[in-house]
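Lab notebook, bench 4. The sequencing result for the construct came back, and we need a structural model before the next group meeting so we can plan mutations. Quick request posted to the team channel:

Model the 3D structure of this chain.
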Amino acid sequence: MIPHSKPLIDSRDIRAVVEVLESGMLAGNRKVHHFESALSACINRTYAAATSSGTSALYAVLSALGVGKDDDVVIPAYVCSSLLYAVRMTGANPIVADSGDDPFHIDADTISKALTPKVKVIIFPHLFGSANDIRDIIALGIPVVEDCALSLGSELNGVKTGNLGSRAAVFSFYATKVIAAGEGGMVVSDDKSLIGRVRELTDYADKPDSAMHFNFKMTDIAAALGISQLQKLDSMIERRRELAKRYSKAMDSTDLILPVEKRSEKHIFYRYVVRTEHVEKLRNLIRERNVSAERPVYLPLSRYPGISAACPRAEEAWQTSLSIPLYPALSDIEAEMVADSVFNSINEINKGD
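Done. Here's the predicted structure in token form:
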């Protein structure tokens, strides 16, 4: 079975981790600071603070922006549940907005419809490796946090996501993300005091005050792996884009809705998401051909307990979207098997109908 996701780990990655283990200095220190500098330079932001996960990064930046009880935070309906939990951890109320014309993203119109007087932050995720214009959202006058967990390295007009005018951005380095550190996250910003507050929040040691502090730090083990992975980011993105072109060419004659790279965008194709009314049938037939495929979002947040928002566009996106394997560790032979399995499966479904 070809897995849906798989990290690309090579001998350099292994050596980087072994060197930290052999040093005996495992907790966050020199390697973490190196990773922060390298990632912020990659995004062209001035400051960065590493964390233990993308979720802790979200929570930390929200808290650093002063989000707390009685505040509201706008998040998309079509997104992973990490955003929901991070908002609730602050004590704030998540305001779930529907997708706009793009089925995978909120926009200024859908956000405006969801706004309340208590909204303090808007979180905008760039899903599946895309890069999206957020100028209209920033123009609403509310601080925007870009969630780049799925878009490290994607660009719009030559500017990387995470630096598109937001107050801050967060990244994730989970085992199957764009670069893999096993676990880990990062907050980047041009606001030195904001990053300072994130650092204060994520390290509890030697702080005899009444503020809340946590152990949300990254280890040097994770940072060493992250640094090594970041050094091959460009080649991994090149491979992703090459595979996406192969898939699009192989499936162009089907009735599937395929991902499209917008004008002035550099899409990294973290996920290759096809859209069809036959998601479950297609998923099952692909699996019978030894290829794993998954819905890219578990459920729309509008279905979660305590959320009362009606989000028909996000619901449609969930009902019609399926992610097929695409990652740098995928071989040419495996990519051909994936493309053939999708092509033959959707044709079999159409013949049956």
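The radius of gyration is 20 Å.
Will bring this to the meeting.
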